[in-house]
Amino acid sequence: MLKIPAFYDMHSHLENAFIGGNASSLEEAVEKWSKIRDKMSLEDLKKRIEKAALVELFYGTTHIRVHADTCSKNSVKAAILAKEELKEYVDLQIVAFPEQGIFNCSKEDFINYAKLADIIGGKPEVDENPKEHMDFISELAFKLGKHIDVHIDQHDAKTKHSEYMLRVAKTHLALSHLTALHFYSDKYAKRLIKTIKEKNASVISSPLTAFYLNGGNSYPMYRGLTRIKELLKEGINVCLGHDDIQNPFYPSGVGDMLQVLWMAMNIEKEFDPSWINLITRNAEKEFGYKNEDYILVDVNSIEELISTLIPRRAVIRKGKIVAKSTIEMKVLDLNPLSLIEELKGENFNTSL
C-alpha cells in the first residue's frame, strides 16, 4: 500500500463538464459552449460544478482551480457558491475567466466578477487589441492585490503574447497552456523560458485538451503541448490541469489527474516518477494552500501507479475518508499486479 499526497487540478472548466459534444477547433468549441451557457441557470451551473468536483475527488483530487466564464451571467457566482458548499471535501480556487474577451463581452461585468473571484484570468487573443487586454488585467490584478492566471499562446499560430504579459504583470503570473512554445525556434524559446524564470512565473499545461484540439486537422500534425521537459530543466514551476471533461473542447476524460500526467509523459517521452510533482508539490506551490490530504493506492511505487493508473483505494481529507474504491484487483483468482511483478522479476538481457 502506497501513501501519496492528494492531487491538484490546476486548470479546469467544471461548469461545462459532462455536457457532451465535440468540435474540430477551439473556436468551434467556444461557439458551441456559448450557445449552451446562457440557457443554464445559476443552480444548474452550481450543481454541475459540485458534481464534477466530486467526480474528481473520487480520483484523488482535493484542490481544483476553476476558470469561471465571465461572459456568462451566472458562472462566477455559481462557482463561488459551489466553493462554499464543497469546502469540507474539495478546495476550489476561482478564476474570473473572459472566454470570449473582456471588451467583447462586458468590461464592467468582468471587473465585478474579478472582485468576487480569487484570481484574475485572461485570454488576450480574443479581444481586438491583445495588449490592451493584457494591460487591463495586469492593472486590475495589481489594484485588487490578486494573482493572474491567463490563457495565452494556446493556438497553433506562433503568437507571442506571453513575452508582453511577462513584462507588464505586476503580481504573480501563471501562463496557462503556452502551447505555441513548441512552434518557436530554440533561440526564441530559450529566451522566453529565461524570462519566465526571472519573473518566477508558473506554467500550467493541460495535455488532454491541448493535444486533442491543437495540431490542425490535416497532416503533418503538431503535438500541441508546451515544452514541459525544457521548462522543468530550467527550474520553472510547471503544473497540470485536466481542463475539460466530456464537452465540446474535449469529448473524453473522467477528471482523473493521473490520466493527465500519463498523457504528458507520453507526449514528452519522459516517464520520470518525479513528475508526480506536477500534480502534487509543484501545484501546491502555485495553488498556495498547504496540502495535508493524501491517497492510499494498492501499489508499491510511483512507477507502478503511473503504469497501471490503478483505482485509488481511499482519499483522506482532514483525517477522514472522503472517497474510496471497493474494486477487487483480480483476474480469475490472480492479482494482475502480482503477475506484473512476476514478469518484471524474470531477468532478460535487453541491452542487445
From TrEMBL:
InterPro entries with a match to the protein in the record: Amidohydro-rel, Metal-dep_hydrolase_composite, Metal_Hydrolase, Metallo-hydrolase_Enzymes
Pfam family, one: Amidohydro_1
Superkingdom of the source species: Archaea
Sequence ranges assigned to domain Amidohydrolase-related in this UniProt record: 4-288
A molecular function (GO) term: hydrolase activity, acting on carbon-nitrogen (but not peptide) bonds, in cyclic amidines
Gene3D superfamilies: Metal-dependent hydrolases, Urease, subunit C, domain 1
PANTHER family: CYTOSINE DEAMINASE
Protein name as annotated: Amidohydrolase family protein
